[in-house]
Every structure is written in structure tokens, then in C-alpha cells.
Here is the input.
Amino acid sequence: MEVFWGLAIPFLGTTLGAGMVFLMKNKINKIIEKLLLGFASGVMIAASVWSLLIPSIDMAKTQNVVEWIPGAVGFLLGIIFLLILDSIIPHLHLHTDKPEGLKAKIQKTTMMVLAVTLHNIPEGMAVGVVFAGALAQNTGITMAGAIALAIGIAIQNFPEGAIISMPLKSEGMSKPKAFLYGTLSGIVEPIGAILTIALTNLVIPILPYFLSFAAGAMIYVVVEELIPESQNGEHSNIGTIGVALGFVLMMILDVALS
Here is the structure.
């Protein structure tokens, strides 16, 4: 039951965020958007360190492996993996009309959804690999720690859900459809987590690499997309404040619940 809720909580965060389209009449306020983008960045950075990289290093020690090797190798592979996906998947970021990825005849709204879906891939991996470690036991990862990560991801998914559904509405999409698209952008998270848990027996021997891999993938999203978007234009300091708040909240969650 704990695993079920652990996988459902992040998706619920996206769904609730997407539901803001029914409560807000106009476009999301620029300052609030920057704060939310920064907040999501801070949560992901802290989760990458406390929930993924530190457990990766600790686990490598117990396996009598040079502790920094899994962390460094996995982290760089995660960066490379997201770099490849970013170069292949057609997507469109906020406040730009220039698509990224391979050229494709896809609607603007679809490419906006794909951009957020791309963000959610490493988050689903992170949740899945941490729960896989908790289920396997003797890995140093506790179920409480896995739940803490799921809650943290859910908190940062809330603004992401709102940030995707509101622009879709502004593009002329109906509220129910914008809500549906915003919700579906997060479906890759539970799917990715379930696939990772299903492969637990294969994952455990190289779990330190998987943990740092997920961390690298998450940091790529933060550095490549979330922080630049939060710092674009005026009031960039609002985005910085959001990073600080998100980082501290996720750090507290991980330490208090682990």
C-alpha cells in the first residue's frame, strides 16, 4: 500500500496543479510563474543530492566500490541521456515560438505538453529507483525516505501542472481539455516508476549507478530549462527565492522523514 501511494502521490500533484485551470481566469502571473519555476528547481536539486546522490555514495561504500565512481559515472550518463532525449523529442518551452528537438508537424499545444513530459521522465525514474531500493532492503534506503521523495516530487509537480495547463488554455484550448493535457503530461512518472520497480532484481546490483543516473537526469532539466525560464526577463530574483524555498523544503522533508 505504501508503494501504491508513493507512486500515486507525484501524479496527484500534477493533477491538482493542472486543476488550477478551473480556478484561474487569465494567464498565470509572471511573478508567480517565476516563483513556481524556481521552487520546482530547488526541490529537484535537493532531491538529487539527499535522495539520490548521497544514497548512491553510501551504497557504493557497502559494496566495497570506490564510492565516487557510481555517483560520477551515473550522474554523467543521466545528463547524456536527457541531452539525447532533448535533442530528439519535439517540444516547445514557455514564452518561445522556436521548437526544439527533431522537426515534426505537431501542434504547438502538443509540443508544450511534450516539454513538460520530458521534465517528468527523470522524476518518474527517481521515484521508481528509490522505491526499488526500499523494497529490496539492506540498501540503506528506507520506505520513509522513498515516501519523502515522492512527496517532494508531488509538491514540485503542482506548479508544473499549473504552468502547463494555464498556457494551453491561453492558446484557446477549453478548460477541461487543458486540464486533461496537463494531467497526462505527468503520466510518465508512475509508468517509469512501475517499470523500474518491476526490474528491481536486475537494478539492485547497480542501484548506486541508477540513483546517480536519475540525479543527473533531474539536474539536466533544472539547469537546461527550469532555472533559465525562471531567470528570463524582469524579477529574476523571485526565481532565486523560489529555488531557496524549494531546496530547503525538500531537504527538511528528506531529513525529517528518513
The chain is about 80% helix and 0% strand. The CA atoms of residues 172 and 178 lie 9 Å apart. The two ends are 18 Å apart (CA to CA).
